[in-house]
């Protein structure tokens, strides 16, 4: 029996709609959330991503502040810009697009951002707050995964969750979020002994390793919920294709539900960036955090 397909496009549309509705309510009170995105250099993929962020930010009714700097800009100049954005009351969220040019210290730049405006959730203070179960800004991709899991499964308490991948951007924060939901969590990786057996024990399997089709269907527990974070470009049949870290065709025959690639986790990243900006704005104005999950059906 084929798995239900978790529709990330549909779910992200619902999140963006709730963000836009909340922004409209804030505007009625004279408050306008603002997101500043800083792009250094001419990386084509980053340019497309930043452009899409700007479009969706404006569509949600927020202010979009875009700063495009030459690749030769000094780190001191970039840090000065970050300092100005930190001090600007119209800016509630700051995102410095990665990767940065090789002459820059990305960690120093990220940690120069006001933690309360760190909508990427990469600042060391937010990492520490998340790791200790306190209120923080949460990295966008893991947040998107969690929202889809809770929409699909409801209460996650007691479920066995395996996160394959230990990056600071996805793997580690994903594990922390699942722990906070009272899952029993295993972080696995390329050096895990008998990785297949570890994966087969998962009620929730999150793949975030950056290796195309690394996880075949016979590693998936029957009925498990599979979240595939991987986005890998491969050449197949003379064409370039996007595939995940999970072998979708075989896994979809075993899993209870699975995210496709593309169209699964990917659309959630910008949606959660907007959600984090809204959250940052609410907190800056002493308002409750917004509700991000509705009741729409997200599986096909």
Strand content: 15-25%
Q: What would you give as the CATH superfamily of the largest domain?
A: NAD(P)-binding Rossmann-like Domain
What structural class do the secondary elements suggest?
alpha/beta
For the sheet with most strands, the description reads: 6 strands, parallel
Global geometry: globular
Widest sheet, order of strands: 1-11-8-7-5-6
Helix content: 25-40%
Total DSSP E strands: 11
For the residues shown, what is the average pLDDT? 94
The CATH level-2 architecture of the largest domain is identified as 3-Layer(aba) Sandwich
CATH topology of the largest domain: Rossmann fold
Taking pLDDT < 50 over at least 5 consecutive residues as the criterion, the unreliable ranges are 295-300
- Name the CATH class of the largest domain: Alpha Beta
Give the helix tally.
Answer: 10
N/C terminus separation:
13 Å
Q: How large, in whole angstroms, is the Cα Rg? A: 19 Å
Number of domains: 2
Helix-strand pattern, N to C? EHEHEHEHHHEHEHEEEEHEH
Pfam family, one: THF_DHG_CYH_C
Keywords: Amino-acid biosynthesis, Histidine biosynthesis, Hydrolase, Methionine biosynthesis, Multifunctional enzyme, NADP, One-carbon metabolism, Oxidoreductase, Purine biosynthesis
Domain Tetrahydrofolate dehydrogenase/cyclohydrolase NAD(P)-binding: 139-283
InterPro entries: Aminoacid_DH-like_N_sf, NAD(P)-bd_dom_sf, THF_DH/CycHdrlase, THF_DH/CycHdrlase_cat_dom, THF_DH/CycHdrlase_CS, THF_DH/CycHdrlase_NAD-bd_dom
